[in-house]
Amino acid sequence: xxxxxxxxxxxxxxxxxxxxxxxxxxxxxxxxxxxxxxxxxxxxxxxxxxxxxxxxxxxxxxxxxxxxxxxxxxxxxxxxxxxxxxxxxxxxxxxxxxxxxxxxxxxxxxxxxxxxxxxxxxxxxxxxxxxx
Amino acid sequence: xxxxxxxxxxxxxxxxxxxxxxxxxxxxxxxxxxxxxxxxxxxxxxxxxxxxxxxxxxxxxxxxxxxxxxxxxxxxxxxxxxxxxxxxxxxxxxxxxxxxxxxxxxxxxxxxxxxx
Lengths: 132, 116
Prior knowledge:
The structure holds two protein chains of two kinds. Chain A is mainly alpha-helical. In chain A, about 70% of the residues lie in helices and about 5% in strands. Chain A is built from five helices and two strands, in the order H-H-H-H-E-E-H. In chain A, helix 3 runs antiparallel to helix 5. The radius of gyration of chain A is 22 Å and the shape is flat. Chain A starts with about 20 loop residues before the first helix and ends with a helix. Chain B is mostly helical. Chain B has four helices and no strands. Chain B has helices at about 5-35, 50-55, 60-85, 90-115. At the A-B interface, helix 1, helix 2, helix 3 and helix 5 of A face helix 1, helix 2, helix 3 and helix 4 of B.
């Protein structure tokens, strides 16, 4: 693919920042990027698990770190990202699952998305109630 | 024919994505905001004795592992595909990092949860 040796100089469509060309691609990239903070949250919990296995003093250190302002600000950002994940997960669900037919008609994408989002919101509320 | 490991990674991705949608926001709010800041919830909720007790029984161990491990594998597959989207082609190095790290974390999580 070296441009110098090729006398034909064929047009190669540039792929730099391709995802900025279309708002659809931008939304796709935001959805994919949520994974970075999902991974970060899993690592925070993993560290908590390690500290818990090391005993009370170690675990208290982890809890103190969670109480710091930067940590709380970070978790607010992580919370927003998880909420976006919740929405985007069910937004693409009609495309990622097999088609469902009801009375010979394809189940509309909106029905799948809104059902999924509703179920997820209910489950989250139940988890909150259990944890309190 | 060489068996593909894609279905395994994909099912971990799907399970992790579903779990992150169903319980993720509630968990992040409780463990990262409400309990540490003491707003709406007591800071006592995550005290050592309570969490160690939770991690002590097998159901607690499974819940802890499911959240950490499935979230990690979900993220791993997306990050792996994101590298491709940014023009970094999926070679052995990218695979080693994107799937090796979550594998290490999975082994560590199982080891640590069993130590409690």
